[in-house]
Amino acid sequence: MKKKIMRLFALSTVLTCLLGAADGEPKEGVEYFKLEHPVGGVKTREVAELFWYDCPHSYELEKPLEDWAAQQSPRVKLVRIPATWEDQPDMNAYARLYYTLDQLGVANKKALAVFKAVRDEGKDLTTERNVLRWATREGLDAQAVSTAYTSKEVDDAVKAAPALRERYQVNEMPTVIVGGRYRTSQFQAGTAARTIEVLDHLYSNAPLNNRHFRAMVKR
């Protein structure tokens, strides 16, 4: 799975450069796509990011995405969804870590710390034992982490994660979905910085061309 994703990313980046999509206004069908089936029931002004803690491109996008979201007014609803496939145990384990931290209310606060541990320090955070060691070093309550890690709520969230990814029609990570209608990623845009530019364009312009979306924003 990892090698396939990396090959797809490299090919997409080359094609993007060849098409000259990195300059000027983002191009539909090149740097972003309109979902064939819009995601129903999304919150007003929602931006959903599907990511994986062991993905270098997810790591690269994390801080720029946080910074972009913090600058938006009215405030953007940034939803993070761990990307998983049922037959990928490591991805499901990292989804469990995310939902554990989310259960404790620290998923966003500790996001960069997790990425640094996994990507920079090479730590394996796919087992409860390793997660508890990491959490203790991060100043988290080990007992609270253990309770959340094995809770029914987290179990249910992990089991539902593959279907949630499919609902957002995502097959690579990271991918950003704007208003449940448009998607972009480094695969399309070529770089994390350009992904943020495309995201900003979509958030500021493209979704608002939809009458239903405008009505949602006014609520």
Automatic annotation (TrEMBL):
<feature type="signal peptide">
    <location>
        <begin position="1"/>
        <end position="21"/>
    </location>
</feature>
<dbReference type="InterPro" id="IPR023205">
    <property type="entry name" value="DsbA/DsbL"/>
</dbReference>
<comment type="similarity">
    <text>Belongs to the thioredoxin family. DsbA subfamily.</text>
</comment>
<dbReference type="InterPro" id="IPR036249">
    <property type="entry name" value="Thioredoxin-like_sf"/>
</dbReference>
<feature type="domain" description="DSBA-like thioredoxin">
    <location>
        <begin position="79"/>
        <end position="185"/>
    </location>
</feature>
<keyword id="KW-0676">Redox-active center</keyword>
<dbReference type="InterPro" id="IPR050824">
    <property type="entry name" value="Thiol_disulfide_DsbA"/>
</dbReference>
<keyword id="KW-1015">Disulfide bond</keyword>
<dbReference type="InterPro" id="IPR001853">
    <property type="entry name" value="DSBA-like_thioredoxin_dom"/>
</dbReference>
<keyword id="KW-0732">Signal</keyword>
<protein>
    <recommendedName>
        <fullName>Thiol:disulfide interchange protein DsbA</fullName>
    </recommendedName>
</protein>
<dbReference type="Pfam" id="PF01323">
    <property type="entry name" value="DSBA"/>
</dbReference>
